[in-house]
Amino acid sequence: MARRIPRVLSIAGSDPSGGAGIQADLKSIAAMGGYGMAAITALTAQNTQGVTGVHTPPASFLKGQLEAVSSDIVVDAVKIGMLADGEVIATVGEWLAQSRPGVVVLDPVMVATSGDRLLADDAAEALRGLLAHADLVTPNLPELGVLLDEPTAATWEDALAQGVRLAERTGASVLVKGGHLAGAECPDALVLRDDDGGALRIVEIPGERVETRNTHGTGCSLSSAMATMQARTGDWEASLRVVKEWLRGALAASDQLEVGTGHGPVHHFHHAEGTVPLAEGEFTAGLWEATAKVRAEIDALAFIAQLDAGLLPESHFAYYLAQDAQYLNGFSRALARASALAPTEEEQAFWANSAQVCLIVEAELHRTWLSAHPLPPGEGFALGPVTKAYLDHLLAASSMGSYAVLAAAVLPCYWIYAAVGEELHRRHVARSAANADAGAHPYGAWIETYADEAFAESTRRAISYTDRAGRSASAAERTAMAEAFRQSTVYERDFFDAPSKYA
Ligand SMILES: Nc1ncnc2c1ncn2[C@@H]1O[C@H](COP(=O)(O)OP(=O)(O)OP(=O)(O)O)[C@@H](O)[C@H]1O
Ligand SMILES: Cc1ncc(CO)c(N)n1
């Protein structure tokens, strides 16, 4: 019977490096939505390079673990991995005879990815005997050969034929794995025995090989994920389709982990990255970090250096101010929309107040700076191309209907302006202290308005509200927020650079 959160037991060995064995099983079971449990058959000392030791506790203690679990908990599926020796195999066989769960997946582990043995030499025969208790057996190509007492299959066709022979001989269904094949393809296939024990059916699922050395634990991960999905769906083929796609993603994302120098583990939770709980400030810190390159480009602009040195041509300053006045008008409308979408009254009031402050600052620009720095007649207040593009971007974010995305889109206007302003102001103050003449700086009075503590406080609040929205957003919404933030940061850069192009 299908179970939404299946209770899945792994009976397997421990890999302290976390990539294989019960550690991989517990991660894979959780990744597939199950509740994971583990009865440990053996302890290995291993890492991504190989196995340096195996300690097998008395089989009676494994028996104790299995009884503790099944005397209290309904086990919906079991995955059986490393069994170490004949006594362990016998213990698991006895437990299955008494307490067999509805789904039994057996991964006949014999050798680690590194080539080290994980099953006693004389135990292969005992393992063959256990196969009959399984619903699904998941050997890799060398293991398939050993179980049949045949050479390792050299081609995929040979492997499929061996899979059919193993299914016929054991009565179990067989998952034939293409991981050990050469070439660009990495297919898997199910040799399925229908419930009525009738004819065998082969379902092949093709797949591209992921170019990586990080294949430690793929077999463990596959078998425990299959046990979990089967308990959820009752359909081996549907389960393999989901699990194979997930495992491909886990292999493709494995480089992010940087675990070990040998065959590294796969990234079991690659698909859930957007759902990791974030601490306060972490989301917006990530947005800031991701735009470091664009911000470095802003710092390197001639406009900033010239403004700082007091060498910015008048016409550039006038153009900048005229565009800023128009920008503030459109920006105010975007903020009013953020207020309309805000989830709390506190945020609603903040954005509404910011929208109003923008209009006050715009009026002030006209009254003071623009009257003192008039544009050439005729050029007046024409909307420049960057100003238009930036405002169009904010308008698009406003009309999406997502508060979180709109907050991310308006944030760079606060944050970048505050950061650039703070730096300009810091340098201006340092210069004034060192040089009595600094009072003559043509843009000194303007730079001084940058030090406004009220604006710094608004910036902190805009960051904090955007962060809160990001932390409770869906993965897709977070992606849209990051894109909106990045795009606005690019427009901030282009806005500072526009006078040099269009003034
Ligand atoms: N490079 C790869 N690209 C895509 N899929 C792969 C790759 N390597 C292995 N797989 C997949 O991983 C699963 C395990 O296959 P494999 O034949 O490697 O098992 P194994 O040898 O038992 O694994 P382990 O490395 O844990 O011993 C299969 O679904 C296989 O298709
Ligand atoms: C404990 C353990 N089980 C299975 C494997 C197979 O990958 C391994 N390397 N270690």
From TrEMBL:
GO terms for molecular function: hydroxymethylpyrimidine kinase activity; phosphomethylpyrimidine kinase activity. It is an enzyme of class 2 (transferase). It catalyses: 4-amino-2-methyl-5-(phosphooxymethyl)pyrimidine + ATP = 4-amino-2-methyl-5-(diphosphooxymethyl)pyrimidine + ADP; 4-amino-5-hydroxymethyl-2-methylpyrimidine + ATP = 4-amino-2-methyl-5-(phosphooxymethyl)pyrimidine + ADP + H(+). NCBIfam families: HMP-P_kinase (TIGR00097). Pfam families: Phos_pyr_kin (PF08543), TENA_THI-4 (PF03070). Residues 303-498 form the Thiaminase-2/PQQC domain. It comes from Sinomonas terricola. Keywords: Kinase, Thiamine biosynthesis, Transferase. This is Bifunctional hydroxymethylpyrimidine kinase/phosphomethylpyrimidine kinase. Residues 15-267 form the Pyridoxamine kinase/Phosphomethylpyrimidine kinase domain. Catalyzes the phosphorylation of hydroxymethylpyrimidine phosphate (HMP-P) to HMP-PP, and of HMP to HMP-P. Its EC number is 2.7.1.49, 2.7.4.7. Pathway: Cofactor biosynthesis; thiamine diphosphate biosynthesis; 4-amino-2-methyl-5-diphosphomethylpyrimidine from 5-amino-1-(5-phospho-D-ribosyl)imidazole: step 3/3.
